[in-house]
Specification:
By secondary structure, the chain is α+β, with helices and mostly antiparallel strands. The chain contains 8 helices and 24 strands. It has 4 domains: about 160 residues, 2-Layer Sandwich (Alpha-Beta Plaits), CATH 3.30.70; about 90 residues, Glycinamide Ribonucleotide Synthetase, Chain A, domain 4 (Alpha-Beta Complex); about 120 residues, OB fold (Dihydrolipoamide Acetyltransferase, E2P) (Beta Barrel), CATH 2.40.50.1010; about 35 residues. Helix 3 packs across helix 5. The radius of gyration is 27 Å and the shape is elongated.
Amino acid sequence: MTLQHMHIGFDDTDSPQKGCTTYIAALLVEKLEKFEVEFTDYPNLVRLNPNVPWKTRGNGALCLRVKCDATVADEIKEVVIDTVEENSDLNCEGTDPGIVFFPGAKIPKEVQFFAKRAITGIVDLKTALKLLKKFKAEAVGFKTGRGIIGGLAAVGETLQKDHTYEIIAYRFPENYGTERKIDKTSIVNMDQATAPYTFNNIDPETGRVLITPRGPDPILLGIRGETAEIVKKAFTLVKPLEPVERWVIFRTNHGTDVHLKRVKQLSQIKPYHPVIVRGTVASDPKLVPRRHVVFVIEDRSARVDCAAYAATGILRKIAGELIAGDYVEVYGGVRPPSKNRPLTINLEKLRVLKLAQKIVYRNPICPTCGKRLESMGKGKGFRCKRCGSRFPNMGKVAVKIKRNLKRGLYITSPRSQRHLTKPLTRYGMEKRCHTPVELIEGWHFP
């Protein structure tokens, strides 16, 4: 038997109305095992740049990495193509599935770099096709075939550094579109039992359950954590009140901040790119309709708006406490300018580096009786209502106000965190180096 390595990447299969690319991966895990393939990694769930305007619902691409008998390789490809076609929402405009079959044990540096760009910026189909041709890989596209970009990016992102795991359980089709039925108390108990090694199970501010999506997709729940063992344990602690069709453990870039790219100055930021950049708050924040907070930061090169939306919870509150002169580091996606709005960084995180002194100017105290004076008019000085004293040459006095805001890192509330946003609980848990992946027993069902 001659074994060969095959990396199977695919993307852009779902729509807002139906489908889920991870579900296709789950189906393929079961189907490929019938060919007696050896999985060399957990299915990789790779979230791409969340700011691109043509993203899918979660902007997640998938890669299955296997070793298989060379004699069945073509048959495996046919099964993959058929499964993607059958489970994609091809009737939806903007759903353009793509599949990549990449040979070889190691992924070339150029393909890894392509993946990095797909996560932190923007790449095009032309570049993807050139790489596929160069490395003698195969691709299949439906409609425009834009999903080939994500498929190749999933192949190229080998998760060699920081990564996390997610166990995803799926519903039976007859339950699609209905409310998920899970015992909430069991979710609370699971969260407490597995902390801090699972994350974003429940929003602490509202008590909202975060492991269950709300749309019509096949997912019942998804639990994220630091290891395959801990997410599987967490799953055993949760009590679904409806039958589970199947479940799979994925290795992923969730919660790693891998999308954020540091930019040295404000003039270098580009629309649709996730950035980290520093600047001085140019003026006090403004509260705009729908309770969003907007403030402007500046450096020697440019001025840029920053927005903390109402849904960001604690981040919006902190943004509202900034004042002109504060020095901050902002993290978020760059929204392009429009007719009514300038270029804006939509905040995911905010680090307060230096606090400006907050000074207010108040009427002076009467030196005769100790009562606060009142103005006699602009430039005319002050008088005391109590004792009648007048002070025509006296001016307002500066008073330093103690600020409640502290230096440090602030993150949007869990209920509004993006898939890639690293939560506070993960700081200090990052995986710094690559170790060989060993799949645990029973990492999927069936």
